[in-house]
Amino acid sequence: MGRPAVHEGAPGVTPRLRATAIIERNVLAYRRMLAPFLTGFLEPLLYLGSIGIGVGALVGGVEVDGRTVPYEVFVAPGLFVVAAMNGAIMDTTFGFFVKFKYGKTYDAILVTPLGVRDVAVGEVSWAVIRGGIYATVFLLAMLALGLIESAWAVLALPVAMLVAFAFAGAGLAASTFMRSFVDFDFINLAMVPLFLFSATFFPLDRYPDWLARVISVTPLYQGVALSRAVVLGDVHLGLLAHAAYLLVMGAVGVRIAGRRLGILLQP
């Protein structure tokens, strides 16, 4: 049996509105499997407890922009955006691939008035919501532990959503090129160094100059820099460059994913 005809979606309705059907479908699916959803909260929180608070008791303070802050206060904003990244990347990589390759979910969806752009926008939107939920829980933990030092931290959640959007778009685009689960080793190969070397645990100026320059243009570093700035109250216009980077990254990812899905789901 061939694939359904690929189309752009019902006329007269914006992709954003049609894409809500994809979000609703994912919400209903996760209501029946809460465990995989909830476990995504744990990793950044465990790192905060073991490294942020545990190691923080040994190393003392970290100098940031001319002032010294406790190590756990320094680490927490980085792990905060890692939580958002994890939530987004889980759905747009492994989650998407299972639905596409084995569940044939999108074949069924394209029989409806929804089109490939709706699938791309809907999946990325859901991933942003999931990343935002993870980030919200982490932010509440930071608040409870007294790790927030500025009223500018109200901007932390929008920062997390922006990080989730960037990685959701990139993750979905990358997943459309995956042929089997073996290929996801490349995703892990990219994510682990990003997690470890994006100034998450150490200030950028502690790295060798050549490595610091590389780190400064990586995607997670943009989110870490934004998050740390708003949580510590060091807000300035230069942060807009980080935000623009993440916005463009997400938009390009969605664009590529939409085009690739149009090719892959051809009859």
Question: What do these coordinates show?
Answer:
The protein is mainly alpha-helical. The protein has twelve helices and two strands. The chain has one domain. The chain has helices spanning 15-18, 20-31, 34-39, 42-59, 71-102, 105-109, 116-144, 156-175, 184-196, 209-215, 219-232, 239-264; strands at 61-64, 67-70. A two-stranded antiparallel ribbon has the order 1-2. A hairpin with a 2-residue loop joins strand 1 (61-64) and strand 2. Helix 11 packs antiparallel against helix 12. The protein is elongated and about 60 Å long. The mean pLDDT is 87.
The helix tally amounts to: 12
Q: What's the total number of strands?
A: 2
Strand order of the largest sheet: 1-2
Task: Please provide the ordered H/E string of secondary-structure elements.
Answer: HHHHEEHHHHHHHH
Distance from N terminus to C terminus (CA atoms, Å) equals: 10 Å
Low-confidence stretches: none
- Our Rg estimate from Cα atoms comes to 19 Å
Nearest-integer average pLDDT: 87
Strand % is under 5%
Broad shape: elongated
Number of domains: 1
Most strands sheet: 2 strands, antiparallel
* Oligomer type: single chain
